[in-house]
Amino acid sequence: MLDGLSSSLKDALKKLAGKTVIDRAAVDELVKDLQRALISSDVNVKLVMELSKAVRTRSLEEEPPKGMTVREHVLRIVYQELVRLVWASTDVKLEPQTILMAGLQGSGKTTTTAKLARFFQKKGMKVGVICADTFRPGAFDQISTLCTKIHVPCYGNPQEKDALKITREGLASLKEQELIIVDTQGRHALEADLIKEIIDLNLLTKATHRWLVIDAALGQQASEQARRFHEAINIDGVIITKMDGTAKGGGALSAVAETKSGIVFIGSGETIDDLERFDPDGFISRLLGMGDLKALMEKANEAIRPEDVNVDAMMKGKFTLRDMYKQLEALNKMGPLKQIMGMLPLGNMELPEGVYDVTSTKMVRYRIIMDSMTPKELDDPSLINSSRMQRIAHGAGASPDEVRELLKYYKMMQRTLKGLRGASGGKFNMQRLMKRFSGMQ
Amino acid sequence: MFGGLREKLQAARSRLGSSIQTVITAPAADAEKTGVSDKSASAPEKPSVPPAVPEIPVKPTIVDKFKVLLIERELIVSEKDVSEALSELEITLLESDVALPVTDAIIAHVKKGLVGKHRKIGESVDSLVVGALRDALLDVLGSGFDLQAYIRSHPRPVKILFTGVNGTGKTTTVAKIGSLLKKQGFSVVIGAGDTYRAGAIEQIGVHAERLGIKIIQHPEGGDPSAVLFDTVQYATSHKIDVVLADTAGRFHNKANLMSQLDKIKRVMKPDLIVYVDEAVAGNDAVTRAAEFDKTVGADAVVLTKADMDSRGGAAISIAHTIGKPLMFIGTGQSYDDIAPFEPADVVGELLGDA
Fold it and tell me: What's the structural domain count of chain A?
């Protein structure tokens, strides 16, 4: 779905390519496509209208900086305007504090609470959790099970119906802990009693942070709900959950705009470690389905760092495991490989399906396996014979089959890159593209 | 739950109405000169009907104005102006969480209805604009789903499997439907098929206990297929009417979890697969409904959290995407907060008339 939209955005941008003067019609078209892309990502409609108006005005009025094509100029404005919305990333300090979790039913507060506890615990803090959800059956079982797994003390009482009483007792019982997270019952802004309750909880805990948990799939309601939560307890950060689905999380963007706060964390999986600090670039890239925006920004600032990846060597077909390792690392930040490959104007060239078919867990496994290889092996994978394979597998705690699979994947990547080189033809500046490709890392 | 959408639609309509009216008043004078005649063949001459607005003795409602004016505009004003008017409607639908592709489809449908109307002008003018909208929405929402009748007409036990992504309210919905069916006199057993999420078994267990419904549970981490198989076995041997099978929330893009669901389907052979989603979901509602429908199928839809001031666009999106009837909407946190979905009523309510 969004692929279609981002491609229409790209088509619109293509029309700007090669132009020396801004073409009003092309900008209008681009703005329209941008609107559609954002709306289908669930960004608030009013917000989209404001943003697209700004993009249009600036594109038509501002002079493109020297050395920048019209297309890049417009794209840069789009990017800047988007970043302006989400740039404010809330500071997370490692000091004694209390965090109050708020959000709609089923947005993932309890799971996120456990993930946060884990996050701060790994940073070396003493964390405690209070379960102030007195409504949903099994809520205490859920959070206490999760907390037990990570050895974090969890206070709660499934028999008690008064969330304030539990929290008061919890604060007393966990006063040894440096950081306390209060998980609350799901509520929506129209439930007056529950809003009153969370106001009281906020007063009682004197919470340092009040974070709003937003489901990535939340639609236009996000603005309104966030506004009311903000009125009630002054939200100072937003956590987006369920980013591992296909939802784009535009609702969270609306919530951030509404609360004038930043996105603090992103939840993207079911295990307790699936929580990341928010990276505005990656988020916007995903939102627009375009990977090359950040690279473009860097170009604008003439800040291209020395390339990590040896582009020339790669273009000559020398693509070592070491390059792949760096790519895997970059992919972690960038999102799916398919998206990155999507940046390259390959036309209708078919890439082998298997190239994309590597899950993120596998990526992690691959990196671990490569960590067990010697520098020589990384430079020249053909050295790896069965005894070396045994050693690598042993070192990485993997099976030789996994090592073999990795090598197979490497070969596929190598073939793909060779294919790219072949397909690039004379006119097409592959080198520049690869630079951009690596610039993102 | 559609209150918001209705207001917005009517507001848009009145905006459309007034913007059209300003355009129309000028040609209207000319039209009177040319005479009131349906015989006049050329389209620009047609605005013989606009006097309908002042002529109607009863104070014309916004809806009436809209009906008359938009049609008249179709005749007088160029196609481009109509699409401008429709883009207003488009924004309204988008603001109500109707997903973009679905909005496009509805707008196209309405437009088509209006253009078709163009030729038949002179006949019953008013009903057809609203008719176009109504057709579009009814078309999309389909008919409701009568669970009670379904159960009565099928061999027992009727096995119902609940699916959906994480946090949409499957477990709560299972409890609500259990409570409803029990009140309707059916015997019910619940299978605690969410063996993954911590606390899920306890959650559904507490619900079942409160409602006095038998529940089949396995320990956390067990195979959900096994639990649900046992539940069906229990229902068969105890002559229970309905099996409600809860499952863990899963994302449609996780192949392993989806194939687990497929296995559950093979093992328990559900009669009905109910897809649960939330009314507040945005554009993703379309993607995931389509994926679920494709991989495990869906026979009916339950929309939860409809009390969150949502505009109900998700209902339209999902119904349009998978073409399956909406069975219930969840409207609150207590067991009775569940209501059958009546498309005709909803559309009637949306359009401000019955």
Answer: 3
Report the pLDDT value the prediction gives residue A362, as an integer from 0 to 100: 74
Tell me, yes or no, whether A295 and A356 share the same domain. no
Q: What is the pLDDT of residue B120?
A: 47
In angstroms, the Cα distances linking B247 to A146, A174, B87, B163, B274 are 20, 35, 41, 6, 11
Which among A104, A70, A76, A282 has a CA at the least distance from the CA of A185? Answer: A104
The domain that holds A265 is classified in CATH as 3.40.50.300
pLDDT of A430 above 60: no
pLDDT of A294 reads 55
> Is residue B286 less than 8 Å (CB to CB) from chain A?
yes
Mean per-residue pLDDT of chain B:
77
In chain A, which among 197-256 make CB contacts under 8 A with chain B?
215-221, 224-225, 241-242, 244-248, 250-251
Asked if the C-beta of B278 comes within 8 angstroms of chain A's C-beta atoms, the answer is yes
pLDDT > 50? residue A1: no
User: If you average pLDDT over residues B241-263, what whole number do you get?
Assistant: 92
Q: ipTM of this model? A: 0.72
Identify whether A285 is part of a domain: no
Please indicate, yes or no, whether residues A296 and A350 belong to a single structural domain of this protein: no
Do A12 and A41 sit in the same domain of this protein? yes
Residue A213 in domain: yes
Compute how many other C-beta atoms are within 10 angstroms of the C-beta atom of residue B124: 8
Give per-residue burial for A135-165: e unless 16+ CB within 10 Å, then b: ebbbbbbbbbbbbeebebbbbbebeeeebee
Using a CB-CB distance cutoff of 8 angstroms, which residues of chain A are in contact with residue B253?
244-246
Using a cut of 0.80, tell me whether the model's pTM lies above it: no
Residue A284 lies in a domain: no
Q: Which residue has the tokens 């929402």?
A: B141
B38: nearest Cα among B150, B124, B138, B165: B124
Domain that holds residue A15: 2-88+290-300
Which of B173, B176, B280 to mutate to test binding with chain A, by most A CBs within 10 Å of its CB? Answer: B280
Nearest CA in chain A to B202: A138
At residue B261, does pLDDT exceed 60?
Answer: yes
Do A259 and A111 belong to one domain? yes
Helix (H, G, I), strand (E, B) or coil at A151: coil
**pLDDT reading at A314 higher than 70:** no
Classify domain B147-343 by CATH number: 3.40.50.300
A263 at interface of B, judged by CB pairs closer than 8 A: no
Chain B CB within 8 Å of residue A145 CB = yes
- Is A19 part of any domain? yes
Residues of A in contact with B99 (CB under 8 A): 40
